Amino acid sequence: MHSSISSSDPAVNVAFVHDADAHERAIHARETASDRPGVAQPVPIRPVPKQPWAKIFLGMLVLFASLLGGWEWYWRDFGATPGYRNSFGLWAIQRHRIDAGEGNATVIIGASRVYFDIQLDLWEKLDGERPIQLAFEGTSPLKFAEDLAGDPNFTGRLLIGIAPEVFFGGHGYRAATLKYFHDESPSQRVGQWLSMHLVEPFFAFYEPDYALATVIQRQPWPDRPGKPTQLDVRKLAVTEADRNTHMWGKVEDDAGYRALTRKIWSQDFAPSPDDPKPEESDKKRDEQIDRMVKAVAKLRARGVKVLFVRPPSAGPYLEYDNRLFPRATSWDVLLAKSGAQGIHFEDYPEMQGYEQPEWSHLAYADAKRFTEALHTIVVRDFWKPETDIAKQTIEGDTIPTQPSP
To answer: 81, 167, 184, 370: least CB-packed within 10 angstroms?
Structure first.
């Protein structure tokens, strides 16, 4: 037996091995442009293996339908139902109404309290006209008021909801909707129409709160050092096609979910090192007031009726509102500087005592009661019907007529 290192082993044909390696490389090599100057590279041809493509496609459809159906079943079992997404596109549809001939309507702007608490169907029943809902959660009404002040098509009545933390703090969670509205493209309008007619009325899972990436993100992952987990606001309301909105029943009826929503709000209640300094907070508050005063002046000069509304809050949230922006240095100053009138819930017994499951918004049934009470106050004390404020002149004297029944 020959040793593996013996000089008596048969010689290996080195030249043959080298030629074989080169031949193997040549089979798989592809010439580059530098190898073939002035000549286009050949297109590689690769045979597609025969497969049962029809069965593969059918299997893919079955798998897709199973996964989609499972995701839909999961969220329906959680309590979700199909509804309309409160998107920029949905807001833009309502904003377009003003420029399309409804400029004399009652328009609502503000944050989530007037968005959730004022029920459009009941207001329409009481008033005869359905308001245009342009409020947005977590967003100051300032930019929306400025936008309407610059739109000569708007000549109606403006209800401005004031949530102290949001307005005086200058929060702009959804303020980008104005840019979307002014720059909206035809494809975006078509996409919104398709979503509203083919997807949103049928699928409960089609809700930002249930997006897979969002669900993964809010799992109980370990906190990073110095970066404790901040819980994001969860789904709180149900929205209709014209943005009529009310509190989601799960917030009212599910004790665990209600506790979660309270826990989320409570994250901001305790003083934090990240809070703005008092002088910074005061500066922001004064800036918001001064800008709103200018917008209100432009609106009233055009004949628009402007009325501020401070909806109810309760419990720890009310304490937080009052600590952050006391009424005397915020709400009262806003009314005095703007010359506009306002309705503060603390001034009216009929606007108090409502159920607020998570301290900030009204339960659905109480939102209806609130809407009726608010409309009564508005008509009685501020925006009287034209028949009530019509005047007649007798012998040169102006005498107000008696209010109609």
So the answer is: 81
